[in-house]
UniProtKB/TrEMBL annotation:
The lineage of its organism: Bacteria, Pseudomonadati, Bacteroidota, Flavobacteriia, Flavobacteriales. Residues 17-155 form the Ferritin/DPS domain. One of its GO terms (molecular function) is ferric iron binding. PANTHER family: GENERAL STRESS PROTEIN 20U (PTHR42932). This is DNA starvation/stationary phase protection protein.
Length: 167
């Protein structure tokens, strides 16, 4: 019995893009674990905790994305070898500097946000409000995390734009 009011042929493009996001998040999750384990230096305490927070968040999103695919009556990709083939995020050594780790994660965020935009586009075309709602919240959260990581990577003498935006 179909509990969705969306024809399957409209959902297939959404599911394809959700599986790509699921693949991205699995590779990203493992990268965060690696960075958490391998961080060294003066920023150890801050970044060790931050990376743990981020991989716990990624773990929840992995489960929610897979469950959304199942809700749409399809099966999520579930083999790591498939994740590596599908993902636009690539593995990297955890034996890099803290600054390189942050830059790597910001690059990953850009790829994940691009993938999320594809999902929103496909879900909108399908009339899939549930997926739009889920991914919209993810975009907001990841943009905020990206802002914070970007701020961390700056020198204290770097400034935001000084001009105020007035209405």
């Amino acid at each position: 019995m179909s509990y969705l009011n969306i024809p399957d042929e409209k959902l297939i493009p959404v599911v394809v893009e959700l599986n790509a996001l699921l693949s991205n998040y699995n590779v990203y999750y493992q990268k965060l674990r690696s960075f958490h384990w391998n961080i060294l230096g003066k920023n150890f305490f801050d970044l060790h905790v931050q990376f743990e927070t981020m991989y716990n968040d990624a773990k929840l999103k992995i489960d929610e994305i897979a469950e959304r695919i199942l809700t749409l009556r399809h099966h999520p990709v579930s083999n790591f070898s498939d994740y590596l083939k599908i993902s636009s995020i690539k593995e990297v050594s955890g034996l890099i500097t803290d600054q390189e780790m942050i830059l790597e994660l910001l690059s990953d965020h850009k790829k994940i946000l691009k993938q999320m935009s594809k999902i929103i586009e496909k879900a909108n075309a399908a009339g899939d409000e549930g997926t739009i709602d889920l991914i919209g919240a993810y975009i907001r959260e990841l943009e905020k995390t990206s802002w914070m990581l970007n701020a961390w990577s700056k020198n204290t003498n770097d400034q935001l734009k000084r001009d105020e935006v007035k209405s």
